[in-house]
Design goal:
25% of the residues are buried. The chain starts with a helix and ends with a helix. The longest helix has 18 residues. The chain is rod-shaped, with a radius of gyration of 46 Å. Strands 2-1-4-3 form a 4-stranded mixed sheet, with helices on one face. Strands 13-14-16-15 form a 4-stranded antiparallel sheet. Strands 5-8-9 form a 3-stranded antiparallel sheet, with no helix packed on it. The chain folds into 3 domains: 81 residues, Roll (Ubiquitin-like (UB roll)), CATH 3.10.20; 72 residues, Resuscitation-promoting factor rpfb fold, CATH 2.20.230; 175 residues, 2-Layer Sandwich (Muramoyl-pentapeptide Carboxypeptidase, domain 2), CATH 3.30.1380. The protein contains 8 helices and 16 strands. The protein is an alpha+beta fold. The structure holds zinc ion. Zinc ion binds next to strand 14. Zinc ion (ZN) binds next to strand 14.
Length: 338
């Protein structure tokens, strides 16, 4: 009988120790790690949040805890508070410039030149940096503002090739004295004079024959006057005061891709009036179908560097001739001035 009573008491004591209700709660040992310190204390508080408050530690909403603040306090509990803070940081960064390559008809194939140097731009970048106990844990770009736009570097890539059917020759882009096309032939067309001034490159000569035939179908009788001219011949006929003749090297006639045409009524000479005739108008509206353009247009004298020449046909091939005709632009405008 005595034994039973003792065991009952033991049970009561054990229960009391478990709940703390009967013999009062004992303080529990806790350890709080915060702000680089380790704080050891004893607390009778019920949960983690209260224990932190009791220790006079202020918690910020961003701070990280290894427990919920509602978690019950246990003996020997180690509570770790990681301080989290964010800061904004503004940085000026360079913006790289782009390199743009443009085709330059005045520069020889294979050569390049710098038209303008590139200049780096500047931008202001704002980062939001998050620190945990002073250590950076993330960095996010929150805004970017361009202060100075970069300037492109522009490089001209030469496309000047005298043997190309689409080469542009003018007073700024000239041929060397020794250039002579290798495929000159005599076009089989009506002409005002001896044939030795009528040579053209093979493809251009065939196209001219087609053009003359098409004109004839409309009862328009065109006459060829002047095709290929050598550098030295061009030099011998150059008249700097005429406004029409080109200095040696600056004439398309050296390419073998040009032909001056006229009508019987002009007695072998070239006339601006040709542009007003029905033949001249037909040529203007139809030459591109055979790959030719009126090279020196009215109103474009400042661009081509030559007076209006309704008689001067230049072969470019059907595609490019059609494009220039439809856009009403010169070869210089097509290539652009760099
Ligand atoms: Zn000409």
């Amino acid at each position: 009988m005595k034994k039973k009573i003792i065991s009952s008491i033991i049970i009561v004591v054990l229960v009391s120790a478990g709940t703390g209700l009967l013999i009062g709660s004992r303080p529990k040992k806790i350890i709080i790690q915060v702000d680089g310190k380790v704080i050891e204390s004893k607390t009778k508080e019920d949960n983690v949040g209260q224990a932190i408050e009791e220790a006079n530690i202020e918690l910020d909403v961003n701070d990280k805890l290894n427990y919920d603040i509602d978690d019950k306090i246990k003996n020997n509990q180690v509570i770790v508070i990681n301080r989290v803070e964010t800061k904004e940081n503004e940085v000026i960064e360079k913006i790289a410039f782009n390199e743009i390559v443009v085709d330059d008809y005045k520069t020889k194939v294979g050569e390049t030149r710098i038209i303008s140097e590139g200049v780096e731009g500047e931008k202001k970048i704002t980062y939001t940096i998050t620190y945990e106990d002073g250590n950076e844990i993330s960095r996010v770009i929150t805004s970017e503002e361009i202060i100075v736009e970069p300037t492109d570097k522009v490089v001209a890539q030469g496309i000047f090739d005298p043997s190309s059917l689409t080469v542009c020759v003018n007073r700024k882009s000239t041929l060397s004295s020794d250039y002579k096309p290798t495929d000159l032939v005599l076009p089989d067309v009506r002409a005002v004079n001896s044939s030795n001034r009528l040579y053209m490159r093979k493809e251009a000569a065939s196209a001219l024959e087609e053009l003359f035939k098409a004109a004839e179908d409309e009862n328009y009788y065109l006459y060829a006057v002047s095709g290929y001219r050598s550098y030295s011949y061009q030099k011998s006929i150059y008249n700097p005061y005429s406004g029409y003749s080109a200095p040696a090297g600056a004439s398309e006639h050296q390419l073998g891709l040009a032909m001056d045409i006229t009508l019987a009524k002009y007695n072998g000479t070239l006339s601006v009036d040709f542009g007003n005739t029905k033949e001249g108008k037909w040529v203007k509206e139809n030459a591109h179908k055979y790959g030719f353009i009126i090279r020196y247009l009215q109103g474009k004298e400042d661009i081509t560097g030559y007076n209006y020449e309704p008689w001067h046909l230049r072969y470019l091939g059907v595609d490019l001739a059609t494009e220039l005709y439809e856009k009403n632009i010169t070869l210089e405008e097509y290539y652009g001035d760099y």
